[in-house]
Amino acid sequence: MKSNYTESILGAITLIVALLFLVKFISANTDKSSGDSYLLSAKFLKVGGIMIGNDVKMSGVKVGVVSDVRLDEDFLAEVTFKIYSHIKIPNEVVVEVSNDGILGNKYLSLTPINRDSKTFLKSNSEIKDVKDFESIEDQVSKIIFLATQ
Questions:
Q1: Which domain, by its residues, includes 137?
Q2: Choosing a second label site near 71 at 20 to 30 A (CA), which of 20, 33, 126, 149?
């Protein structure tokens, strides 16, 4: 009879620990800055798997989150993303689709052209200077093309 109490207590402790891990997982994967951010957008020929919730990074630091990916009337992929309000993005910036390693997650990378710029993008601005996603197949075909010339 005593072992039933011990098993019940261990089961309860296991359940509590599992719930704590679940709460920590949910809090780590939610966007906490929905109120204090502004929107920017960019249009690409290929976005290569960018989805809602992917990171937006500048110099390797997360500065925002992708909020919408859709096809516009010219059949370009329009990506809208939130930038945290305390981050100012210079007017002269290049946006490109990057990935973490060979099989890593995709993210948008913002690279300022002029880091000393005093003018910044405003909410709902569109970034015109984009670099489209190049898959591994695209890169290999370029190498083969260059090797055969």
A1: 37-141
A2: 33
Q: Does residue 149 sit within a domain? A: no
Residue 13 lies in a domain: yes
The answer to whether 38 and 123 are in contact (CB under 8 A) is: yes
Question: Is residue 147 domain-resident?
Answer: no
- Give the Cα separation of 135 and 119 in Å (integer): 33
Three-state SS for the chain is: CHHHHHHHHHHHHHHHHHHHHHHHHHHHCCCCCCCCEEEEEEEECCCCCCCCCCEEEECCEEEEEEEEEEECCCCCEEEEEEEECCCCCECCEEEEEEECCCCCCEEEEEEECCCCCCCECCCCEEECCEECCCCHHHHHHHHHHHHCC
Across 101-114, average pLDDT: 85
Judge whether residue 28 has pLDDT over 90: no
pTM (predicted TM-score): 0.69
Query: Could you read off the pLDDT of 38-80 as tens digits, one per residue?
Result: 999 999 998 888 899 889 999 889 999 999 999 999 999 999 9
